[in-house]
Amino acid sequence: MTDTDLRRSYPHNAILIESARVLASPYDDAVVYLTGAQLELLRNVTFYLNRRLTYAASYEPGYYMMPNNADFDDILAIVADLEETLMGNPNTIWGYKDRWYENVQDVKSGAGNFTLQTAVVPAGYIYRCDLITSVNVNTVLNHIHEVYAGGTGVPFATYAGVGANIWQPTFPLGFVLKEGDRMGVSFVSCLDGDTLVMRVIGTKMAVPT
Questions:
Q1: Tens digits of per-residue pLDDT, 159-189?
Q2: Is the dihedral of CA 9, 15, 21, 26 positive or negative?
Q3: pTM, to two decimals
Q4: Contact at 8 Å (CB) between 193 and 107?
Q5: Which of 90, 157, 164, 166 has the smallest set of CB atoms within 10 Å of its CB?
């Protein structure tokens, strides 16, 4: 386009965006949370961001110059990326909904191994486990602390010969559990009548829909 084609009179009651500040932003990246209503507003505003006359490459007395083809192509790529982000960001921002605490216990019937597990993470939530601790009130034995990815148990800490009525903690953890995951403890070679207890503490996050 020629300079004449790029020249525009200043519009009445319109906002002009300096193209240089889009192509080389003076601001650092930011993480923000938007409500559904705010998304609706911004998605519609992007229509104006796709118009060349929204941008001013330079200001002159009585008129302004729009960006040239090369700069406008770069701006359109930035706007397209913004539109894709506003239509659904694949990255979920971590948030705090509530404390997660569970106390799970049982009495062993008969001798042998036994596993305690937390409830599974429900739909619409992500949990973060910061501490897991376990105790056999009656017997010295081995404790295996595990995280269950779906139905598969993955041991991450094994403690041999933990004393009776001695709590065995593992922390800090920071395990992030999605829907269907859980934490667990396996007790090796329990005796009949052993009282087994597991406790976990962490945080809950409601997943935005």
A1: 999 999 999 999 999 999 999 999 999 999 9
A2: positive
A3: 0.67
A4: yes
A5: 90
